[in-house]
Design brief:
By secondary structure, the protein is mainly alpha-helical. Helices cover about 60% and strands about 10% of the residues. A hairpin with a 2-residue loop joins strand 1 and strand 2. Helix 2 runs antiparallel to helix 3 and helix 3 runs parallel beside helix 6. The protein is globular and about 45 Å long. The N terminus is likely disordered.
Length: about 190
């Protein structure tokens, strides 16, 4: 695409008087995404309006962290707060996949697939999606949701940390989607 007169290129988009004209495929982590598609862990999905679908998911994520996780922690439900924070964090990550027309194929390992895909593509831009952070959140949430007597109990500082990471993920996704959203992965 050739930019119109008065346009300027920034990142993966062309701006013309403040309006997005085109959004290119996100190149970071491309091999990981291709691998996950090849292994049937990710699939493409036909969505009419990728931006609106991603926005709806990130709004739900913001609500989950504020209304559910924060409220649960205030009420003393540490495990519930942690699980809700993780849900918000994962939904924020999934909104980046949806924006590219991607989703997990479901089943065992689907949360790990989101972790692998989003960490590979966006951890450098959204530090909350660093692989060790994602893994700690996912594993601790699993221990809370599927009782594991060998796991250490989740503490209030653990839940507060998870809420902080979920809020950072939501804010990072909102900023990235506003400034330089990824296009459809094809």
């Amino acid at each position: 695409m050739t930019p119109n007169r008065g346009s300027r290129r920034r990142g993966s988009e062309v701006l013309d008087q403040g309006r997005r004209q085109a959004v290119a495929r996100w190149k970071k982590g491309e091999r990981t995404i291709q691998f996950l598609i090849g292994r049937a862990r990710l699939e493409t999905v036909e969505v009419t309006d990728l931006a609106a679908s991603a926005e709806a998911l990130i709004v739900r994520a913001a609500l989950r962290v504020e209304a559910t996780a924060v409220s649960a922690l205030k009420a003393g439900d540490v495990d519930g707060a942690y699980v809700a924070a993780y849900d918000a964090y994962r939904m924020a990550a999934e909104s980046l996949l949806v924006r590219q027309g991607l989703r997990t194929t479901g089943g065992d390992g689907s949360h790990m697939t989101v972790e692998d895909a989003v960490s590979a593509q966006f951890a450098k831009d959204i530090s909350a999606f660093a692989k060790p952070t994602f893994e700690r959140l996912r594993r601790t949430r699993h221990a809370a949701q599927y009782f594991d007597p060998a796991a250490a109990p989740i503490t209030e500082p653990d839940a507060s940390w998870a809420i902080e990471k979920a809020k950072a993920a939501v804010a990072g996704v909102q900023a990235l989607l506003a400034a330089s959203p990824p296009g459809r992965f094809s």
